[in-house]
Amino acid sequence: MDAVSARAVVLDERNRIVASHRGRPGDSPARLLGALIAGGTGAAVIDRVVAILPEPTVTDVITGSRVGVLRIGAPAETALPPLAAWPACLSAALAGPVATVGGGHEYDGRVLAPLDLAAVARFARRSAGAVGAVAVAGIHGLENPEHEQRAAAVIADELGPDTPVIQGSATEALGLLEREHTAVLDAALARAARARIDELDTAMRAHNPEAELYIVRGDGTVLPALDGPRHATASTGAARAALIHGAARLAGLTSATVVEMTADHAIVGTTHAGLLPESGLRREIAGVRTGLRAPSLAAVARDEAFTSRLLATLARARHGFDEIPVVIIGDRADVLPDPPRVPVIRPSDGDLAAAVGAASAEAAGSIDRIFWQGTGGRADSVARARRLARDAAVRAGADPRVLRETPVQEALMTYVPVPAARLRVTAVGPLLEPVSP
């Protein structure tokens, strides 16, 4: 279901629409699901719900939980304090106690400095009763999250199980600041995300107590609802990503360049084998740079030069994918002529594209980090990267028997004292089907 445009669909095992509901703007996900079920689903029971939730706004962040921020990295990471680069109004609205304590790891996972547990405990006591959530991020925590985990355990013991403690190592991003920023935003939004997901979960289980709930991420893949409250920012861009995937699937394709035509612009994006190419940029939320990767999408304003600029944008989007068709949807799709010498498909029910993209979404795991090559050399590093990506995809809900992998992208790190390379790889596959009783 698409809670942004208030659309919901039921798909059969071949991803064909068997029921749909077009709601009103502002309808909650739970209300959309209830209306869909009340209207008849075309199926005996719904065994899985995949939802696009409204993405977080500046107001959501400002009115969210006050957050305690703990960085693990002294004395190495003290030059730029936590939240120093944030808009002043935002940090003032959500920051509780902020501290940097001793600890962290080297680039290869070795301990950089012992974790200062006494300082962590002091921070936890300052946070008790003063915050609704805590974010913890450690230097090189992606390579070795042990200090983050130990600090989170101390904080949880002091604050109790109802206070979310979000770790920066949960975000696959190389930079400490990007991981820290994402953890702080996720912490601020965690309680609101929990309430929204719980409401939908209650409505779903009233229909089928055994049904599974997933949330769409910003690349159009999913994460389990149990993880949703701890990754509230992950839904940023989900509606647009699901629309690109869904438009291709409405056209019966696994790969396509999609054009969404609206009254004032066109959005162009390509889905290839179930994945959106990345732009290389990180998303900003409320003016804060996060560790979330942004897909490669282009917006073309409808002005005097619209047609020529759109054709140029289509050519760039299809570069390397010259054989794939163009799918055109949107409330102004009829005013766009077919691009020359390109197969074009205009599927019916284009307004349901995002809902279809959600209902048919797959699960993925991506790895983007530096691997330090030991005695096993490059082969061991590549094997580890692929294994980590596959494990992440399975944790997200993918069926391990039918995973697909992207080619491993490799960039040698020539400026470090030991052999190393930055490796990037994604594993993706359909969701594991629920076990029949």
Automatic annotation (TrEMBL):
It holds the Pfam family Hydant_A_N. This is Hydantoinase/oxoprolinase N-terminal domain-containing protein. Residues 92-158 form the Hydantoinase/oxoprolinase N-terminal domain. GO terms for biological process: glutathione metabolic process. One of its GO terms (cellular component) is cytosol. InterPro entries: Hydant_A_N, Oxoprolinase-like. GO terms for molecular function: 5-oxoprolinase (ATP-hydrolyzing) activity.
